[in-house]
Amino acid sequence: MKLKQIGLIPILMSCGLVAEEVKQLWQPFYISERSGEQQVDLSADWELNYLDEATNDLTALPDDGWINVKQPTSVQWAHYQAGKLPNPYEHLNAEDYKWMEEKVWYYKKSFEVLELNNEDNALLVFDGIDYFSRIWLNGELLGYHEGMWSGPAIEVSEKLNQGESNEIVVEVISGNYGQWGEFDFKNPGKIIKPRSFARGSSHRPFFALGMWRGVRLEIAPKYHIERPYLVTQEIGDNYAKLHLETELFLGSHTLEHELNPWHETQISNYSRIELAPNNILVDEQIELKVEFFHEGNLKHTKTFEPYALEGRSWVEETFTLKNPKLWYPNGMGEPNLYQVTVSLLVDGESKDSITFDYGVRTIKQVRSAGPRTTDRWKNWQFVVNNEPLFVKGINWMPLDPLYNFDYDYYKWVLEAAKKGRIQMIRVWGGGAIETEEFYDLCNKYGIMVFQGFPKNNNETPDWPQDILAANTVQNIIRLRNHPSLAVWSGGNEFNPYAYGNATTLAVYERSVDDFDPSRMWVRTSPDHGSTHLYPDFDPVWYHKELDIIPFVAEAGIHSIPEAVSLREVVKAEEFEDLGAMYDQGFAENHPEFIYHFMEYSQGRVPRMLSRASHMGDMANPTLEEISIATQISAGEFYQTMSEGIQANYPVTTGLMPWVFKRPWPTVSAIHLLDGFGQPSAPFYFLKRTYAETRVMLGPIHSLWAPGESIPLDVLVIHGGKKQLKQLDLNISILDEAFNEIYSDQIPVKSVQSGPLVHDVGVDQSFEIPQFLADTYMFIILELKSSSGEIVSRATYWPRVLSDLDGQTPAEFRSTPQPWLTFKNGPWLKDIVAKSPTQIEAQITQSDNKDRYTYFDVTVSNDGDKPSFVTRVDVLGAKRLFVLDDNFFWLAPGEERKLSGKIKWREGTIPDAPQIQINAWNAEPVTLDLP
């Protein structure tokens, strides 16, 4: 079957299964969640099976072969959880799942509901079905639905068997049905589905489908409220001014109304009197009560008496909270949350209530300090609660391409983001309109969200406006009370001004303007003065070429995750001949390796291999060698790039590198966490630059020649609210054997409160000795408090070459150059290994809770040489772990106390796990974990 203008009705009509007049169920109004007896949660424990073709006859459904779906997810992941198929992320197992796209899937569930009051509305709400669906309740077809981002909602009070058993059947058909080998996310036709879940280049094997979000029955009485919207308008000394609006239904309900009259008509044409708004007041006394709870205690209460009209109307009230507890981003203060309950009282009796978390905060944008350089321009200086900041951000891909959106999985990854000092996450337009679990955790951890709508790298002239509007408006309303939500974006890397995108952008833009005008809106990223930045510059160019860019919304470099993770998903014999990974014939002989290789293209990854060749010999490396070499070289990139961008403040006001976590295990990708959720070295290198106070060497070249002078221009990036006083700056330069060849101590009397870039004023340079040739040197900056405590440390390892690719230094540096490939060295790891030191370590605390282990470890360097790339590892089982710091410099005689958290991936704590501490120039120390 080939259906170019694909849609559910054409599919079913072609099979003779449905007539055009069957009710369509998409609509733009999000139905607010209630609690207690007002909600029946139907999300868990559905039964799932399939037919080869769709049917109208539910008795034709199979008698056996049903699998249990414990929680909302994809059809594919449900089969893996049920033990029916092997892990889709290992080897070539994803191929075993492709047949699912060609089947018609049926979910069924039985449930009971208590007796309703005669005038109660029972709203059956599906929060997300991917992609085409039909719904039956007790054998009656309720209608059909298209679109994955907002599910159907149906008023079913007259169709329920109250006090008895009810059965729901949901039919689900894949978005690529009938064009399984042809669907292209870049030319999606009528299907509103992003690349992450549609076999895009990031996740080639998978085209997800299924009932992936929850199902609920909401009981709304005759008089009820919907969709409360709370905005903090102003914050001052000991007060906050808030505005509340909510919809009031007195004898009506949401699904009796429409947002957009989609056919030719005038808006608000009252020439026929019956079309005019109802102006009949209800007889009862109507009150709206708003309560603010903090940590279970009632803190504020406001009560209003609205103008109470029959039917549907709005309540809009502005009020002031005294001494509010404010919500702050990570690193700026506590992300305080209130639990807000909005209640409807009728003649003094509570009839309906809606509760949600809320953070009192303002997020505003003002003009950044640099010159305007394009027609389209936004204000990129973020100001939170009247305090400006440099935004320390990251990009975000979906947690999982098969909708494995488990809360604990989200918690692990977002907790790592908090520990990594992330203040803002940009949700990529090729991914998801994120879930409640995601936003709840971002609220808790103080992480702002730059939410992209699911559109990227394409034109979408055929997207149906009504379905797009339903998807868009429902999600704006669903998310707009979350304090973490800071920015709406039309999507990623597409032309919003192309004819093929005009309609899509019109729907997005008007929807944000109508339903959440309190937040910043950008049509796409990059645009409006922001940029996506991927050249692998020598550090100096971040300041020379990019010093007037207001906001960097993407930047990154590839690396290979840790070997132990990759050996789970690719068979061992394919990790041979890795130095020839781009040679002819390699792909044919390494099918699993290539299957898991993100963007396998010579044009995409040469920087990774060139940089890695500075760490070690990449002619024929082992997996372990190429993994650590690419990670450390990528870490160096993230450090120098982040420092260079931050040094441009206040002109450049934010940075969001690509990308935090990969959605599934990949051999090579731009990442900070791998597909399992394990932090790689770049995570820790970037984290160190995101500290409240960071000392740095002003952007200099990484490649030098003997006899040249390196300027020692030292800056302090400070984002703290307090002034720093009585500091000392120590500058040390070491030769290749870690012998000190330069040192200086400079007093730093004060650094003003941030955000700012403070020039220490070191008017010195260092002339590279002639004996340093074809090797490395080390520059160490330490900013210390008056008590000697290290406030910030930065380390650098410039290359010293007698020949810069056949050019003089001036010629080589005249323009940004690709990184040199060191085929014959010098190789940093070999050089470091020639100067050994001795590491000692002790586990001082260990505690097991559920599937987690928490531990403290003390690591000391007892030798007379620095310990380079000091790394803590966890051995003995499949695990994820995150520490205060890792892959770090440890000076002679220095001791570090680190705390770590381990997640045991197989769900149980192993019998004999171990902690290992190693370095490039020290024998490993292995400790049993109690």
Please characterize this protein's 3D structure:
This protein has about 950 residues and is α+β, with helices and mostly antiparallel strands. The protein has 15 helices and 48 strands. The strands form 13 sheets. The chain has a 6-stranded antiparallel beta sheet with strand order 3-2-4-9-6-7, with helices on one face. Strands 25-24-23-22-21-28 form a 6-stranded parallel beta sheet. It has a 4-stranded antiparallel beta sheet with strand order 1-10-5-8, with no helix packed on it. A hairpin with a 5-residue loop joins strand 33 (about 725-735) and strand 34 (about 740-750). Helix 3 (about 405-420) runs parallel beside helix 4, helix 11 packs across helix 12 and helix 12 (about 625-645) runs parallel beside helix 13 (about 680-690).
